[in-house]
Amino acid sequence: MGPMLSVGTLALSLTLAAGERAPLVVVDPGHGGTRPGATGVGELLEKALALEISLQLRSALERAGARVVLTRGKDVRLGLDERVAFANRHRPDLFISVHANSMPTRKQRERTEGIETFFLSANASYEEARRTAARENDDAPAAGGGKADDTLSFILADLQRTEAHVDSSRAAYAVHQRLVAATGAVDRGVQQAPFYVLMGVEAPAILVEVGFVSNPEEGKRLSDPAYQQLLAGAIADGAKAFLDQVRARDGREKVARP
Ligand SMILES: [Zn+2]
After folding, report:
1. pLDDT at 15
2. Could you tell me which CATH class the domain 22-137+145-252 is placed in?
3. How far is the C-alpha of 33 from the C-alpha of 26, rounded, in Å?
4. How confident is the model at residue 139 (pLDDT cuts 50, 70, 90)?
5. I want to staple 140 with a disulfide (CB 3.0 to 4.6 A). Which of 36, 48, 59, 196 is the partner?
6. Is residue 246 within 8 Å of residue 93, measured between CB atoms?
7. Whole-prediction pTM value?
8. How large a percentage of the chain has pLDDT more than 70?
9. How far apart are the first and last CA of the chain?
């Protein structure tokens, strides 16, 4: 444990009133099993990195007083629909999917690095965000003709109206700011894209791309356990800030509408 490691966990402690239930966070390590996700420099695989960061994220969140369940705690394949169903069974206060990014060509691999945080939107913020979503949607069940599309547009239309959507964007900004501040990584911003895994979750939901495993420098950093812990701590800090914000707001609403 280096001195960096305390940064993310320093101020963590959720403010709970007496008898109040600790908030629940579902943490979702991307890919797994026969689906390695992005492949990076050296032996670095997205599925292993996502799991490592997720396990540390669980510890950090638990230290902060939250309850945490993981969609997968080991190297197993899990469909995106299974992740969504699992999350909804637990009725979480926040859903966080952990991923890492990569670029296809050598030139792009050398050039592209940085962190981006996504929340669900029917439209991608820009072409690259759309491509990232398309790649991460790889494990989604095959669409059954027009039916899936109809279901999808219904879910998306409904989402736009719900508070969960606004809260997802709040959670994304809270987490993203802390990630960039803690790591000094290239800031690729908060993005919106149609990620399958975020669509069906009936809770504020975000997807973090912690960096590009394909970039020589960032890939090396991402392989470092101390850096992984820094990332996990920063995500936990952002989640905690978001959960506190929601709690304060809902508390005020209860007072305002007795
Ligand atoms: Zn991924």
Report:
1. 66
2. alpha beta
3. 20
4. confident
5. 196
6. yes
7. 0.85
8. 81
9. 48
